[in-house]
Structure formats: C-alpha cells, structure tokens
Specification:
The chain is built from 16 helices and two strands. The chain has about 400 residues and is mainly α. It has two domains: about 190 residues, Growth Hormone, Chain: A (Up-down Bundle), CATH 1.20.1250.20; about 200 residues, MFS general substrate transporter like domains (Growth Hormone, Chain: A). A two-stranded antiparallel sheet has the order 1-2. A hairpin with a 2-residue loop joins β1 and β2. α12 packs parallel to α14, α13 packs antiparallel against α14 and α13 runs antiparallel to α16. It is globular. It starts with 7 loop residues before the first helix and ends with a strand. The relative contact order is 0.15.
Length: about 400
C-alpha cells in the first residue's frame, strides 16, 4: 500500500471541510426573521436551531475524533460528509421548526465529525514546524469562509428564498465528499489504531487531559474562541443598532475583520520556525486584551463610539489569527499518540464555548456593549493564564521540548 503523504490537494480538501461551520452558520443567520415567519415560529425557537447546531458540532467532534482513532480516517470522513449533505437537504425541506431543529443538530454533528477527522489527518502526516505552518495555512485560507458566508447569504435572500442557502450547503457537502474521496488518504494504518469501546475512549481522554501542555493550549484556544464569539454575536447590534451603520457597511467591516485574521495567520505560517510559536500567541493575546480593555472603557464611559468599536473589532479579530491556529497546532503536537482524541476535545471545547458565550454576550441587547467588551477582556486574560499553564513547552521536530520562556 502506498504511504499516505501530505499533499496540496489534501490540504485544500481539509480547508474545504473546515468551511462547513462558518458557511452553515453565517449564510443562515441573516434569514432568521423570514424563517420565523415561514415556519410559524418565534424568534427564540429559530435561535434554538443555531444552538442545536453548535451542540451537534461539539458532540460530533467529541465522538468523531476517538472513533477515527479506532477505525481509521477515510471511511468515517466520507460518511460524515454525506450525512451532512443529507441533513442540509432536510433543512431545506423542513415543514416545521421542530424538523428544522433536529436537522440542524444532525447537520452540526456530521459537520463536527468531518472537521475533527480532517484535522487528525493533518496531525497524522505532519509534525514539528511543518505542522505549525500547515495548521496556520488552513486557518488562514479557511478564514475566507466567514467573509463569504454572510455576503453569500445576503445575496441569496436578496434574490431567492432562504431555503436555497441549505440547498447550497448540501451541494457543497457533495463537493466536499468528492474532494475527500479523491485527495484524502487513509492516514492511520491499522497498527497505529487504538482499540474501540467506551473504556478505551475514557482511557485516551484521561491520558490527553493529564498532559499539562495540551490542557494549557486548549485553555488558550478556547478562551480566544470565547472572545471571538462575543464579537460575532453582538457586533451587528453595536455597529448597526447603536452606531447607525448600514447593513452593507457592516458586511464590509465584518469582511475586513475576517481578512485581518486571515492575513495574521498567513504571516504566522511564514514565521513558523523563525519566530517561537508561543511568542506569536502571546503577541496576539496582548493585542486582544488591549482591544477588550479599550472596548470596555468606551462602552462604560463614552457610549461606544463608532471609531473605537471598529478599531477594537479589527485588532481583536486580527489577533485571533495569531492565537487560534498556533495554539491548536501546539495542542495537537502535545498528544501525538492520540491525535483524534486530542483534536476532538479541542473542537468540543471550542463549540461549547461558542454556544455558551453567544447568548451571554447579547444580554445587553442593542443598548450596551458592556457584556460583550467584558467577555472579550476576560477571554484574553484567561487565554494568557492558559499559556502560563502550558509552561515553556514548544514544538521542535515533532516533539514537545522545553524552552521559549
């Protein structure tokens, strides 16, 4: 059997697969009012379909990673992508909000399953500086999806029905399946697989969670994810409701912020091996903390001026490009014997944080940005604590070694 290799086609396929979450979310959110009207439901019921998607994403990653450690990568990945496409068709045809809620859960579960296996394949085939560089490239190119998602969703709503967005996601799911069938090899040979069963999963989980460096980088990444979703959940209210920005201007600003995140991740990829990865993470954390504090001061005493909000949002999102991919790469490198389980727990934390932070950030409604700003500052602070928890560990030639204090 030909040995699996990390190819450009495989990297492109993993990027494609990681676009599931932002596309399935950002294309759909602008349609909430129309969905409520068409399905004779309340705004809260429609919002619940987003929550169930996040719950599905978290559980899919938690289960899919260990399952692929036991059974291999390729077949579970293809099965998950086909299931995600089928669930998207269910969403497009949903006659009631109840059916939509169930279909969104399945869509999220299958999407999370596919995403975690895609990351595990990369960890199987890359190590050391190359792993850090590839993870950053995937994060950078994948950052295009949050730019395209809301713009594409708005165009669909402008010229068609909200159900078309789900047909579009279903078509993407089939395209992802075809791409994975062509480019994704079986990267985990039988001799490297772990035995199945709940007890084995719990054993692998205990091993992974006993690794101080891994836990520290999960805290780094999860806290940064919380700050990011505080922004995602409330930026429309801050910029449009509180500062009078038009929907088009908001979409442009949202895209520019995602672009900053993409550029930062690309720069981090170029610097891999030349600048310590932990140093890049720390720069991002300090920038995010500065943005959170400035935003909190602006919200508490100056009624959140437009210039402050736009500047802080851009700095925050650009900082995530330095934090998230690098922290994810170091977390994966810390538990190379259990890459699926490590990736699963990391993804689980991400989406649990996203589902929890989003409603909390919106507690102020369209009247104040204080809850959102406080969450951003708190997230950056906890992320810094996580980096300290991880100690002075860094990745060198595929191994975790001491240094970079």
């Amino acid at each position: 059997m030909t040995k699996a290799r990390l190819t450009i086609g495989l990297i492109a396929t993993v990027v494609f697969v990681t676009a599931i979450a932002p596309l399935a979310t950002d294309m759909y959110v602008p349609a909430f009012p129309r969905v409520a009207g068409d399905l004779d439901s309340t705004a809260t019921q429609v919002q619940l379909t987003l929550t169930t998607f996040f719950v599905g994403m978290a559980l899919g990653q938690l289960i899919g990673g260990p399952f692929s450690d036991q059974r291999g990568r390729r077949i579970p990945l293809l099965t998950a992508l086909l299931t995600m496409a089928a669930a998207s068709v269910m969403c497009a045809l949903a006659p009631t909000i109840g059916v939509m809620t169930v279909a969104r859960f399945v869509q999220g579960f299958a999407g999370g399953w596919a995403m975690v296996i895609g990351r595990a394949i990369i960890v199987d085939l890359a190590s050391g500086v190359r792993l850090v560089r590839v993870i950053n490239v995937i994060g950078a190119v994948g950052g295009i999806a949050p730019i395209v998602g809301p713009l594409l969703g708005g165009l669909i709503l402008q010229f068609s029905h909200w159900r078309v967005s789900f047909w579009f996601v279903a078509a993407l799911g089939l395209a992802m399946t075809a791409a994975a069938a062509l480019a994704a090899p079986e990267s985990l040979p039988p001799e490297r697989r772990h035995g199945g069963g709940l007890s084995n999963f719990l054993t692998a989980g205990r091993i992974v969670l006993a690794n101080r460096a891994y836990v520290g980088y999960v805290v780094v990444s999860g806290s940064a994810m919380g700050a990011l979703f505080a922004y995602v959940a409330t930026s429309a209210f801050v910029l449009q409701s509180m500062n009078g920005l038009s929907p088009i201007a908001y979409s442009v600003d949202f895209a520019a912020n995602a672009g900053g995140m993409t550029v930062a991740a690309l720069i981090a990829a170029r610097l891999a091996g030349r600048v310590a990865t932990r140093t890049l993470i720390r720069i991002g954390q300090l920038a995010a903390l500065t943005a959170g504090i400035a935003m909190l001061v602006g919200a508490l005493w100056f009624d959140t001026p437009l210039g402050v909000a736009i500047g802080c949002f851009f700095v925050l999102m650009t900082a995530q490009g330095l934090i998230l991919p690098n922290a994810g790469a170091l977390a994966s490198a810390a538990v190379r014997d259990h890459p699926g389980t490590g990736s699963a727990l990391l993804g689980f934390v991400h989406w649990v944080v996203a589902g929890t932070i989003a409603p909390i950030a919106g507690l102020g409604g369209d009247r104040t940005a204080v809850p959102m700003a406080a969450l951003i500052a708190a997230g950056a602070t906890v992320s810094l604590i996580g980096l300290k928890l991880a100690g002075s560990a860094r990745v060198e030639d595929g191994q975790l070694v001491e240094g970079d204090r």
